[in-house]
Task: structure prediction
Amino acid sequence: MRMLFGVVGLLIALAVVGLLAKKQVTVAVPSAAVVPGTPPAAGASAQVQPQLTPVPDQIKAAVDAAMQQKRPGLDDN
Result:
């Protein structure tokens, strides 16, 4: 009886994990993915493909600015 409850519990846990994984995969995969370098599908709006080139430049500028700042509280006393 104890072994039966253990197996049933494991099966229930496996079912819950399977449902959560399936839900996560279906949410993570967009329905209309646009591959860079390919034209958008017919009927797709121009707002589907975001501009991705300025983002790395903004990140690089932010990192460079942060590296130039002095760190407070590092006195050689």
